[in-house]
Amino acid sequence: MTFGYYDVHYWQMNPTEEISRLINLEYSDKPEWIARLFGITLGSVLLAQLTHKSPVLLWCVGYALAHLVYYLFLRSNLKSATMRELRIAQTLFLVVLISFVWAPAWMVAQDSRAVSLSGAGLFGCVLVYLIRRNDVSLYVIVSEIVVIWATMTCVLIKVLPDFNGLVSRIGLVVCWMALVSYFAQSMLQSRALKLAEQQARDNASQAQKLAAVGQMAGGVAHDFNNHLTVISGSLELYDDLEDPKGRADCLDAARTAADQAALIVNELLLFARRTPMRLVNLEANAPLIDIDLLARRLLSRDVEMTVGFLQHPTCVQADRRQIVTALLNLIVNANDAMPKGGTVIVRAGLVTISAPLNVAGGHSLPRGRYVSYDVRDTGDGIPAEHLALVVEPFFTTKPEGKGTGLGLAMVLSIAQGLGGGVLIRSGARGTTVSVLLPQVECKEVVGSDGADT
């Protein structure tokens, strides 16, 4: 198998992510780690008593010191690491490996059958552990093979004179070659399988992204086409009508379609994070003032809307335009959920979270005081099996051409960007979507009226 492409792919790996993988690999299983240290300590003491050679205790001390240096280096580079630091970490692991493996090799070469068999068992554990690590760096894998080869060669040189006869010595050499060769082959094959698996995951992820982009493009094209049809049709009808009221209705329809088309563009820009946030200490009622002016012409004739304001001055640190965009999306969704008419209630309230609160997208909000922007409809509600999916990009239950599937994903992105979250509650009597934003002190407040719209 050719590894050229995979090598390039590996070195594009985030060094910090690899450092985190190494920490989890070595130290996440605390019972195993404690048992390993206890076993080595006890084993070195018993071995020293059995062989009457106190330097064997250096095995325990050297291994512990090497692991301590390795652990401290990994922890110091957990949050940020470069390729150079990753290479140092890999080299330190090789030092840890050498600090351990010399003792089993020495034990195998001893005359005592018990000591020799114990050393062979420990050596076998080392080989299995190295294969289980699933390293993909050729530097690490080749270095591990060299360490094992050198250790096995030292053992071979030590025990070979103890074998009488040419046949027995040839047999020992063949066994040595087989062990080293199969170990090297297993390491390289494990690497090839892991890289192939990673490549398959990347290909599948890329295919999903392309499918999602295609789905989004189709939805955007259909939506835009619908709005353009309304705009062009209304303008053509405007020219044919002489009744002032009819002409006014045509202009209202064209404006509404233009507003909805602009909302789609806003969704795309916010989802792509091409619209920078302008964070200020914002009076919490300010976005609702804009909503009261802008949202009514986005609603169907049979849908009514009420807006509830906070009674006392309250502030959030936010971008006014982005909150308005998020709420407009929620209002459009509420309108679409009530094809036979109903009521949309938009209000702001204060919420105190006394324990971490799980919100949409698998996140949780810490304890504290929040401003909650609630948009409630009186529609049929969201099916329970869809509640966890509605915030996923491109997920939509609307008919083809009736939605891009970006609305709630964009609302979630805005809320998280402002340090908040989205809470969705739905039942037979309707759905309430709440955008929760942390409350802040009202210093240098802006947006207390419509001036900053």
What features would you describe in this structure?
The protein is of the alpha+beta class. The protein is built from 12 helices and 9 strands. The strands form 2 sheets. Strands 1, 2, 3, 4, 7, 8 and 9 form a 7-stranded mixed beta sheet that branches. Strand 5 and strand 6 (363-365) form a beta hairpin. Helix 3 (30-51) packs antiparallel against helix 4 (57-76) and helix 11 runs antiparallel to helix 12. Residues 1-11 and 449-453 have low confidence and may be disordered.
Short recap of the structure:
By secondary structure, the chain is α+β, with helices and mostly antiparallel strands.
Lay out the secondary structure.
Elements: H1 4-11, H2 15-27, H3 30-51, H4 57-76, H5 83-108, H6 113-132, H7 138-159, H8 166-240, H9 244-271, E1 280-283, H10 286-294, E2 303-308, E3 315-318, H11 320-336, E4 342-353, E5 357-359, E6 363-365, E7 368-376, H12 407-417, E8 421-427, E9 430-440
Parallel strand pairs: 2-4
Antiparallel strand pairs: 1-3, 3-9, 4-7, 5-6, 7-9, 8-9
Helix pairs in contact: 2-5, 3-4, 4-5, 5-6, 5-7, 7-8, 8-9, 9-11, 9-12, 10-11, 11-12
